[in-house]
């Protein structure tokens, strides 16, 4: 029984290492800010989650029971990572609005023209 649990813990750590490696690869290799933001936030969240699960399993294997520190770290990471990624993306969008081309209906409205009707029948 202990051997199976140890194998499961090693598998969790291997999966965590894979996700963290993919997240760091995405941070280095992807070109756009938004692509760079997406890779580490998703992959490293899964990696940290697997490491925390392995840590909880290791303490359970030793007979220490579930430690509240792993649960608190997991809650903190799973709440803050998506929120911080969302806030960075919103800040980048607001900084880059001048450099982005305008949408067709916005440009037509500024020129006093009515936008062309949509093909799907909606206004």
Write the layout of secondary structure elements.
Elements: H1 2-29, H2 33-62, H3 68-95, H4 104-110
Descriptive overview:
With 123 residues, the protein is mainly α. It has one domain (2-110). 76% of the residues lie in helices and 0% in strands. It is built from four helices and no strands. It has helices at 2-29, 33-62, 68-95, 104-110. It is elongated, with a radius of gyration of 23 Å.
**Count of helices?**
4
**Strand count, sense and closure of the main sheet?**
none
Mean pLDDT value: 79
Assembly state (oligomeric): single chain
Tell me, briefly, the overall form.
elongated
Characteristics:
mainly alpha; 123 residues; 0% strand
Short précis:
By secondary structure, this protein is an all-alpha fold.
């Amino acid at each position: 029984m202990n051997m199976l649990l140890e194998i499961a813990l090693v598998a969790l750590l291997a999966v965590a290492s894979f996700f963290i490696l993919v997240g760091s690869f995405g941070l280095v290799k992807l070109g756009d800010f938004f692509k760079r933001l997406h890779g580490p936030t998703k992959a490293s969240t899964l990696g940290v989650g697997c490491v925390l699960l392995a840590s909880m399993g290791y303490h359970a294997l030793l007979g220490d029971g579930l430690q509240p520190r792993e649960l608190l770290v997991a809650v903190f990471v799973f709440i803050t990572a998506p929120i911080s990624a969302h806030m960075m993306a919103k800040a980048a969008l607001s900084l880059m609005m001048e450099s982005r081309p305008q949408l067709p209906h916005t440009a037509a409205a500024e020129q006093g023209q009515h936008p062309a009707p949509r093909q799907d029948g909606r206004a």
